[in-house]
Design a protein that fits this description.
Alpha-Beta Plaits, hydrolase, single chain, magnesium, alpha/beta, 247 residues, 4-stranded antiparallel beta sheet, 7-stranded mixed beta sheet, Rossmann fold, Trehalose 6-phosphate phosphatase, metal-binding, 20% strand
């Protein structure tokens, strides 16, 4: 099977950390990704809610193809396109509002990504977590139809309405070196389900990492299992995602 491989980052390649900046990349992962990318003739990309520049920092010195901010940004080979904060004045006002209204909430983190914003409450008390979720829902409602709210694991993220990982993967699949291959996507969260569905529709293989209800047809238990599989593929093992355990 000639595949085009798409990989989420948090919860898929790396374990989720209490804070976004506390994520640790396992030694050897970058080298495995580089070897696997060469084996796939370049058809490997990171598809993430983080900015592409942040992913570059985690995976340095590699500069893999990537879609950041759920597809607002995209890079194939060259420079990053999209994702300019100045293109989103209404969102910028809501980011300032969220920063002010959550300032007194202990362990609630506002992750300002420029063209999107995420509110994290993993470490917050139940009351503060509920307040944070209510605030991000209110901000999304105030922004209207141009933006949408994605709820994940103790996080709510507001992104441009047209930005989804599904659109990002399909955009990759429309050009070399991805075109003509079978799309394969690994993800771990509710925010990945739209892309799972589109990959299924396009005849690809969607793999859910971890527990939870999913439309993906295959599943791996955790990021360690994903890394072990990628290490095997990078070393020349048979690439057969359709043979992975059913979801």
């Amino acid at each position: 099977m000639d595949i085009a491989l798409f990989l989420d980052f948090d919860g898929t390649l790396a374990e989720i950390a209490p804070r976004p900046d506390a994520v640790r990349v396992e030694p050897g992962l970058v080298e495995d990704l580089e070897r696997l990318r060469a084996r796939l003739d370049g058809a490997l990309a990171i598809v993430t809610g983080r900015p592409v520049t942040v992913i570059d920092g985690f995976l340095a010195p590699a500069r893999l193809d990537a879609a950041g901010l759920h597809g607002v940004e995209r890079r194939v080979g060259g420079a990053v396109t999209g994702g300019r904060a100045e293109d989103h004045p209404d969102l910028r006002r809501q980011v300032a509002r969220l920063q002010a209204e959550t300032a007194a909430l202990a362990q609630v983190l506002i992750e300002d990504k420029g063209a999107s914003v995420a509110v994290h409450w993993r470490l917050a008390s139940p009351d503060d977590a509920l307040r944070a979720e209510t605030l991000v829902k209110g901000a999304a409602e105030a922004l209207g139809a141009d933006y949408r709210l994605q709820l994940g694991k103790a996080v709510g993220e507001i992104v441009p309405a047209q930005a989804t990982k599904a659109h990002a993967i399909r955009a990759f699949m429309a050009q070399a070196p991805y075109a003509g291959r079978t799309p394969v996507f690994f993800g771990d969260d509710r925010t990945d389900e739209i892309a799972f569905a589109s990959v299924n529709e396009d005849g690809g293989v969607a793999i859910r990492v971890g527990d939870g209800q999913t439309v993906a047809r295959r599943r791996l238990p955790d990021p360690a299992a994903v890394r072990a599989l990628l290490r095997d593929w990078a070393a020349g093992g048979a690439i057969d995602p359709a043979a992975l355990p059913p979801a």
